[in-house]
Amino acid sequence: MSKIVGEILTFPSGNENIKLRVFGDEFYARRESLDGYTAIYDNNLEKYCYAKLDNGKLVSTGEKINGPIPSGITPHLKEVPEVIKEKFQQQYENSGYSNIEDINLKKNTDDGVNKTKGDNKGLLTGDRSSEGKVLGLTILVEFSDVSTTVTSQDVEQMLNGENYNENGNYCSVKKYFNIMSNEKLEYSNHVIGPIKLPHNRDYYMNAPFPFVEEAMNIVVNDLKIDLSIYDSKRRGIVDAINFLYAGQTVYQGKLWPHNSYFSKDYNGIKTGFYMLSSLGRNVSDISIGTFCHETGHLLCRFPDLYDYGNRDGDYVDSEGIGVYCLMGSGNHLNKGRTPSPICAYLRDLVGWCDKEINLNNKGSYTIKHGDYNTVNKYNTSKENEYFIVENRASFDLDSYLPSSGLAIYHCDIKGSNEWQEDNLAYHYQCALLQSDRNLDLERNVNNGDKGDLFGQGNGIVLSNSTIPSSKEWDGSDSGFIISNTSEPNINIKIEVL
């Protein structure tokens, strides 16, 4: 899934284009005018209009959103949880996840698609392909009314290039996962197309499954592509299929960037999980962030570390881990060109960290930036609950973070980043302790600011009695005490008491 948090996007509305702020994902989203009034698309008028509430549901006023404000309308209108849940369920029923065949995967979706709760030891249920050589199939797709000037060679470089930095991208997708996994995962892609689908783009926004099925039929039946070469584990299922469609990203319906599931047998090889996103209008739009985020779901079975606002029994918005992880909203940093690293918590879960530093042993430690092979961990008295310390100073892939310094995560593989309550029953799976004490991530104020990470500190920086504290989720003293942190740099020194 790919969540949008207040980004300004352009939408067709009648005979003009308008800019709206978007909040949500492919299963439920809300839109606002730039001055904060909720907008809804009026199918009869074929334009975005001011919304009003009718029995807890957003309906159109019939007045266009860029016109005079109707009397009695207030900003930031939201639907009631029951309506949100109903709309979510309708979208889910038309998604690929409602067709998952494997009962072990269905256990992960009691009220919908991949959730923020990782039921498989912190990860999403399903077979991982997070190590070894994996060859993905990437298909470029045009519509009858939308073509692209982006070539397969352009995408090939974005995905596989060794020294790729076009458009300000930090690296290629292959290089990103090579860095994050300490060379344990070599993920490259075979790029084909563009192929052309028979209908216009709007048709595919709302139809249940024709985009994926029509594209795959062309790939296998017309282009004669042998899917078995994309099955690295020889299990009869393609490891990774990626669809990149022509034009700018459409944050509506079935064209919203997402990771989903489509199973069909082609000559003895089945399709399975796939990713869908946009190519952009031209080569200057190409960025790696969303592709990397969706690949995190696809290959590694990473859960999202952000809050959907309507999953896992919770209907309160928060930001989860924010921009401090690829699987939060960090895929959008630098317009997607310098995505945030995968946080140490998730790297550790998939076995990419060969070295574990036990912070339960008192002493002085040097926390190195970019040491993706190491996890610095303090274990609490509770099984599956622990703290991780990571250097997130402003270098390399961390260059576009709003804060620079020491990141301290409070982790529990049985938590959910939907749960911002901070108690034993309901808490984040991976919470960033925010140095400024404001709890902006939990309170949905922002997805990261300059006060989040720990800078230079003399004396006690973190303990049972500080704010934020190192208390366990049940309020008991974990015993974790950090003092005398050095200034943000390639090496940050700390003392554990």
Automatic annotation (TrEMBL):
MF GO annotations: metallopeptidase activity
UniProt entry keywords in alphabetical sequence: Hydrolase, Metalloprotease, Protease
InterPro entries xrefs: Peptidase_M6-like_domain (IPR008757)
Organism domain of life: Bacteria
PANTHER family from the UniProt entry: PEPTIDASE M6-LIKE DOMAIN-CONTAINING PROTEIN (PTHR41775:SF1), SECRETED PROTEIN-RELATED (PTHR41775)
Record's protein name: M6 family metalloprotease domain-containing protein
